[in-house]
Write a structure and sequence with these properties.
The strands form two sheets. Strands 3, 4, 5, 6, 7, 8, 9 and 10 form an eight-stranded mixed beta sheet that branches. Strands 1-2 form a two-stranded antiparallel ribbon. The N and C termini lie far apart (about 65 Å). With about 725 residues, the protein is an alpha+beta fold. About 40% of the residues are buried. Among the domains are: about 170 residues, Tetratricopeptide repeat domain (Serine Threonine Protein Phosphatase 5, Tetratricopeptide repeat); about 180 residues, Nucleotide cyclase, GGDEF domain (Alpha-Beta Plaits, 2-Layer Sandwich), CATH 3.30.70.1230. Helix 5 runs parallel beside helix 7, helix 11 runs antiparallel to helix 12 and helix 13 runs antiparallel to helix 14. It has 26 helices and ten strands. A hairpin with a 2-residue loop joins strand 1 and strand 2.
């Protein structure tokens, strides 16, 4: 503790032991469940929007396999916040899947039940459910599902500290994903293995696994995944006190985070970089750390993420302590303490009390420092964090030496030594166990390699024998057939030419049909890249204009219509919108329920995308009014529509290896969605950046700065239509 508080946002270690100890179970679980499952996919809409959309679809979904999938997906979206409701939906999915004999859906639902019970910390139930999912997937031969189940089992064993079992399941999942050539999940498996090795103190081996993941993702250009791997490499170096190297990897990660534009990820990157800089034992780097922490704090305040604000305030207190600016340190530490008390975050409070103790001791306020030292010790003992408890004993030695109570100082020095040697022995045992597990894995791999080589050699010998036998038989047959072939060669040649011509024409027709289908799914330029390269590299666009539309009272009107009529109705509207997009050279991105999303300025950049998009929006609203008039005359229900538009940078690319989807990501997408949510029926709501590009051509009315969810206040304009 004389060395200062642990940095919030990293997992520092002492002698290779995780300093968060047993208290980190909940946080480790959430990290394992969410970091690699959710955060490897970048979604343009937030989780609540996704859950709402799925809930709407469930209201009209038939009792078929599609409903099973919707129920499982919906449960996943609400699992963390509404566990009882999630369980109810998963039980419904299980019952319907069994009724329909839909084994794949049943397996997915059992998997969801496992995740739910792991969130609830019912590990024995989670294990049972994961094993049921794995058994069903093995019966189906669903290799991808088998790999995912093995990963979940590895996560569960890792969170419970059973490292040998965890690494065994991760290795099995890696083998499955290697056979599928699924490089994204291979990278995830390497990273999971690395985490286990780090926990076991095998840092060089952990770095080696991370490096494999890095090379895979650099070859794919997967920026959203790559920045997470760079971050993990930074943590690997940080845990070994290699702070300069940690800084290099955190900087690489931050560059990618800034390209992708997600504010939370950017703030998290600032915090990581601040941690490395502050630990470099240099006042210049501590000043830089303060700058990064303040940037992170500003963003987290805007996002209203109180937990993150508390973490960064603690880190700022530690950095100002190193700069000997104790009043500033205390200001941020008091704020961290207040937030963590409100959140009942005991591990976080332990960190803050630790730092407060150190700051007050350095100021010479010994009695006040003792109060916080006792609070820190109390929490460490309560939650079983032996490492922090050991540090507390060392600070008691410091305190009692300063107050000349040498008897108590000796007593706490003895406690410190006893606990330290105990932890070192435990870590040595854990390291031996990890190394033994590694050795067993290496021996298995060598045995598999030898078996593959033997099999390959046998197959080669058999192939040679078959080739020789076939050559002898073939020669005899050829001699018999030669005369007949020569006799009919002209007739056969003519017939073959006719067949070849017909086949070529059929192939060309099918190729043209496939090309047309692909161009209907993807932009033409993107489709060409996919055909020639096999993959599509993500592209960053400095400026595009994104449009979101949504129907008013869609749920109420949808409830009064049959599913067939509703689909037909939406098809009529969306076909009209598609034609408008084509006229204005905009790219349709997707439809989500009754929402329609498009963008201008990609895949071919242009200077008129903002004006093109607003003019398309005007035409969409006019089309809605025309259709509403017809529906009213026929006595039928009709829709009104809100539209929101925003201009800014995005990243675009293709997701999926089957059923390709062209999509865009970035804060611009989220802001456009907020513009639509803040709009009114029949109106078009523009952001400031879009208005600035069209104000000379399109009359608009300033609405003022209005609040938008997670965005603060944003200037908005209504188009006069």
């Amino acid at each position: 503790m004389q060395t200062g508080a642990n940095k919030s946002g990293n997992n520092p270690t002492f002698a290779g032991v995780n300093l968060l100890g047993n208290t980190s179970t909940i946080f480790l679980r959430l990290r394992l469940l969410l970091l690699w499952v959710c955060s490897w996919c970048v979604l343009p809409l937030n989780a609540q929007n996704t859950a709402d959309s799925l809930a709407k679809l469930l209201q009209t979904a038939r009792q078929d396999t599609h409903r099973v999938t919707l129920l499982t997906d919906y449960a996943w979206e609400i699992a963390e916040t509404e566990t009882d409701q999630a369980e109810s939906r998963l039980q419904e999915a299980l019952a319907l899947a069994r009724q329909l004999s839909y084994a794949k859906g049943e397996a997915n639902a059992w998997n969801g039940m496992g995740i739910l019970e792991e969130i609830r910390e019912n590990d024995s139930l989670a294990l049972q459910y994961y094993q049921k999912a794995l058994e069903l997937r093995r019966q189906l031969g669903d290799q991808s599902g088998i790999g995912r189940s093995l990963t979940n089992l590895g996560n569960l064993y890792e969170s419970n500290g059973e490292l040998t079992k965890a690494i065994q399941f991760y290795r099995e999942s890696l083998s499955v994903f290697e056979s599928l050539k699924d490089t994204l999940r291979m990278a995830r498996a390497y990273t999971n293995i690395s985490g286990v090795l780090s926990t076991g103190g095998a840092y060089p081996e952990a770095f080696s696994e991370l490096n494999k993941a890095r090379l895979l993702m650099e070859n794919r250009g997967e920026l959203a995944t790559l920045f997470k791997i760079y971050t993990q490499i930074g943590h690997n170096r940080f845990d070994q006190d290699q702070f300069s190297k940690a800084r290099e990897w955190y900087e690489k990660s931050l560059q990618l985070r800034e390209k992708l534009g997600d504010p939370f990820d950017i703030a998290d990157g600032y915090n990581d970089l601040g941690n490395a800089l502050d630990e470099m034992d240099n006042k210049d780097t501590s000043r830089l750390a303060v700058d990064y922490y303040l940037k992170a704090l500003s963003i987290f305040r805007e996002l209203d993420d109180q937990s993150a604000v508390g973490n960064v305030c603690n880190n700022l207190g530690d950095a100002y302590k190193h700069l000997e600016q104790f009043d500033e340190a205390l200001k941020y530490l008091r704020e961290s303490e207040k937030i963590r008390l409100e959140l009942e975050d005991e591990p976080g409070l332990m960190e803050t009390y630790n730092t407060l103790n150190d700051v007050l001791f350095r100021q010479g306020k010994l009695r006040e420092s003792l109060v916080y030292l006792q609070k820190c010790e109390s929490i460490a003992a309560k939650i079983g964090n032996s490492n922090v408890l050991m540090g507390a004993y060392k600070d008691y030695v410091r305190y009692y030496e300063a107050t000349k109570d040498y008897r108590k100082a000796f007593e706490y020095q003895t406690r410190y030594n006893d606990l330290r040697y105990k932890l070192i022995d435990e870590q040595r045992s854990q390291n031996i166990e990890t190394q033994q597990a590694l050795t067993r894995e290496q021996e298995k791999q060598l045995a598999l390699d030898r078996e593959r080589q033997t099999t390959a050699l046998r197959e080669a010998e058999l192939a040679n024998a078959r080739t020789f036998r076939n050559a002898l038989l073939g020669g005899a047959v050829l001699l018999v057939l030669l005369v007949g072939l020569l006799f009919s060669r002209n007739r056969l040649r003519a017939r073959a030419n006719r067949l070849l011509t017909a086949k070529n024409e059929a192939i060309e027709r099918e190729k043209q049909r496939a090309d047309n289908l692909l161009k209907n799914i993807l932009p033409e330029k993107t489709a060409e890249e996919l055909k020639t390269e096999g993959v599509v590299k993500p592209v960053h666009y400095a400026s595009v204009t994104v449009l979101f539309s949504d129907f008013k009272n869609f749920t109420r009107i949808a409830e009064s219509m049959s599913p067939e009529a509703l689909v037909k109705e939406l098809d009529e509207y969306f076909r009209t919108f598609d034609a408008i997009m084509e006229r204005h050279k905009l790219e349709k991105i997707k439809t989500i329920g009754d929402a329609y999303m498009c963008a201008g300025g990609l895949p071919e950049p242009n200077e008129t995308h903002a004006l093109d998009t607003v003019q398309a929006a005007l035409e969409m609203q006019q089309a809605i009014r025309d259709m509403a008039a017809r529906k009213m005359a026929q006595g039928k229900p009709y829709f009104e529509m809100r539209i929101g538009i925003h201009t800014g940078p995005v990243v675009a690319g293709v997701v999926g290896s089957h059923k390709f989807a062209y999509d865009i990501w970035g804060d611009t997408v989220n802001t456009a969605a907020r513009m639509e949510q803040s709009s009114e029926p029949g109106r078009i709501n523009l952001s400031q950046t879009t208005w600035e590009q069209v104000k000379d051509q399109i009359p608009c009315t300033f609405r003022g700065k209005l609040p938008a969810k997670n965005k603060g206040e944003i200037a908005m304009y209504f188009v006069e239509n």
